[in-house]
Amino acid sequence: MTENRESRDGGRSLRVFRFTILFCLITASVFADDVRITFVDGDAAWKRMAQNYTRSVRNPEDSLPLFLTEQGFLDNEITASQEKDLKTLNVRFGRRYLIGAIFIEGDRADTFNVNQPFSNDIINDSMNEYLRRYQNGGRYYASMVPVRFEKHDGEIDIYMRLAEGPVVHISEIELVGLKRTDKDFIKKLTGINRGDIISANKIEKSQDNFRSLEFVGLTGSPEIIPNAGYETVRVRYNLMEKQQFYFEGAAGYIPEDDGYYVWYLDLRGRNLFGRGQKAGLLADSREKDKSIFRVYYGQPLLILGMGNVLMSVRIRDYRDQFYEFGVTAAYELA
Fold first, then answer.
1. Pairwise CA distance, residues 37 & 43, whole Å
2. What's the DSSP call for residue 180?
3. Spatial distance between the Cα atoms of 65 and 80, rounded to a whole number of angstroms
4. If 97 and its partner were Cys, which of 43, 51, 110, 118 is the partner (CB 3.0–4.6 Å)?
């Protein structure tokens, strides 16, 4: 029995050993070609960045030129040479260009200066900032398409064609993920209505409204779903109802000082009737002859915008020291 077990263990070890050798051989074949990079020009920071990028990709001679172009080195040159297992890339950065201006062509010609290093991120940010005015004016699907580029004196000017698109209205507001909550009430809290002209600002404001709620939260950004013709859209909110009830309590007996009981109770509920109502009860008597009792009720109230009203009754009984009773009511904007 022992010999059979040792034989099986020995066979398993041999298979693991063979697998390890096979893996090493495969790994060696994949990474056999070492890459060395040399530079004709460029400062130390960009050289390090190019070296790090080269190590992170499989075919740097193909992808490094595109990477450098996206960083503004539009005249970069990469030459590759191979000697046995050593590949050498000779890199010339050339001048790093600035974005001079973006020219808008079409029915509404316009120009705006950028004066920042050329990069895809800066181009996209500049385009999005410019299109924002159209998106807030209802032309939610306005877009710009590059037409041509012109280089001069270390700068590059970009010519774009603007497609304004139609004015877009909201055809429906969809709420997904609600079970206990009144959907018509939640639609009021979005701050948008069917038939409204859609705008990026309104959509962002509706997200802020949801973030201020204690009983419902967004699980992601709103979905803007176009209908046929792109003149109307459905706005879909994916929501999650938060925990409805919370309870914490404890009780005990203290034998010292003639003995007395202590207790603590904190009971809270929210979204009790589907419209964000909340209520709670706190009873605290953790010291002898001292107790606190508080009960409250609150709910969202849309008088001057997103707001909440809260009413509470509070009692503090410190026996021989003092007794306090109070009623409070407050309204606060979200």
1. 14
2. S
3. 12
4. 118
Question: What distance in Å separates the CA atoms of residue 90 and residue 76, rounded to the nearest whole number?
Answer: 11
**Spatial distance between the Cα atoms of 201 and 194, rounded to a whole number of angstroms:** 16
Two tokens at 153? 């004196």
Helix (H) or strand (E) holding 81: strand 77-83
The CB-side HSE value for 204 (13 A sphere, CA atoms) comes to 6
Distance, in Å, from the CA atom of 101 to the CA atom of 126, rounded to the nearest integer, reads 10
The total number of residues written for the chain in this structure: 334
| pLDDT tens-place string over residues 10-24 | 444 444 444 444 444
Gap between the Cα atoms of 128 and 136, Å rounded: 12
Q: What is the pLDDT of residues 126-182, one digit of tens each?
A: 999 999 999 999 999 999 999 999 988 889 999 999 999 999 999 999 999 999 999
Cβ-proximal residues to 157 (8 Å cutoff; 6+ apart), any chain:
99, 100, 101, 102, 103, 149, 150
Tell me how far CA of residue 239 lies from CA of 105, 179, 185, 221, 223, in angstroms: 42, 10, 14, 10, 12
pTM for the structure as a whole: 0.68
Parallel, antiparallel, or unpaired: how do β-strands 77-83 and 86-92 relate? antiparallel
If you write DSSP's letter for every residue of 33-65 in order, what string do you get?
A: SEEEEEESS--HHHHHHHHHHHHHSS-HHHHHH
Cβ–Cβ < 8 Å for 227, 171? yes
